Amino acid sequence: MTQPEPPPVATGEAAHFRALESLYAAAPINRLFESALEIPESGVARIRFEIDPRVYHAAGAAHGTSYFKMLDDAAFYAANSLVTDRFLLTTAFNLLLTKPLVAGPVVAEGRWISGQRRVFVAEARLIDAQGDEAARGTGTFMRSRIPLATLPGYRLP
């Protein structure tokens, strides 16, 4: 009987993407916001998550903290996918909330816009289960002095 082939080990850019996904999963905040990060290509990040009544404000829709967290994370990881040595820090974030989110699946889509040295700009949007945009945001991210390799969760294969 032949053994199945083991999955290929990610290298180069793909290894960095998988290590960032692992870093995201290891962040303690994500125990409060169940979600999954996917980095399909350089400069792009997607976070899938569910809105449920635990994050509602008094009027019965998602509180703005959920919007901000997912928009910031998606934009951040889109930008950090371009940086293999350092952790980026959010220095500014502007958001526009356009539709209330209620219970159901949501995708945060982040895209790098500009910057390749010290400061990066990325945008993100939240798409609800009906395919409607519920929010969008733009962030500015700066290289920190924190090496990615020193962070718990950032594991290169």
Please provide a written account of the structure:
The protein has 157 residues and is an alpha+beta fold. The protein has a single domain, classed as Thiol Ester Dehydrase, Chain A, CATH 3.10.129.10. It is built from two helices and six strands; from the N terminus they run H-E-E-H-E-E-E-E. It has a six-stranded antiparallel beta sheet. The protein is globular, with a radius of gyration of 16 Å. 31% of the residues are buried. The model has no long low-confidence stretch (mean pLDDT 93).
Secondary-structure map:
Layout lengths: L11 H15 L8 E7 L2 E8 L12 H17 L5 E12 L6 E11 L4 E9 L5 E15 L10
Antiparallel strand pairs: 1-2, 2-4, 3-6, 4-5, 5-6
CATH homology superfamily: Hotdog Thioesterase
* Biggest β-sheet description: 6 strands, antiparallel
Strand content range:
35-45%
Number of domains: 1
Query: Could you tell me how far the N terminus lies from the C terminus, measured between alpha carbons in angstroms?
Result: 28 Å
What's the order of the H and E elements?
Answer: HEEHEEEE
Order of strands across the biggest sheet? 1-2-4-5-6-3
* Share of residues in helices: 10-25%
Record field, number of beta strands:
6
Classified by CATH, the class is Alpha Beta
Question: How does CATH name the architecture?
Answer: Roll
Q: How many helices in DSSP terms?
A: 2
- What's the CATH topology name? Thiol Ester Dehydrase, Chain A
Please mark out the parts with pLDDT under 50 across 5 or more consecutive residues, or reply none.
none
Secondary-structure-derived class: alpha+beta
Question: Mean pLDDT, nearest integer?
Answer: 93
Radius of gyration, in angstroms, nearest whole number: 16 Å
Shape: globular
Protein name: Thioesterase
InterPro entries: HotDog_dom_sf, Thioestr_dom
Domain Thioesterase: 60-134
Pfam family, one: 4HBT
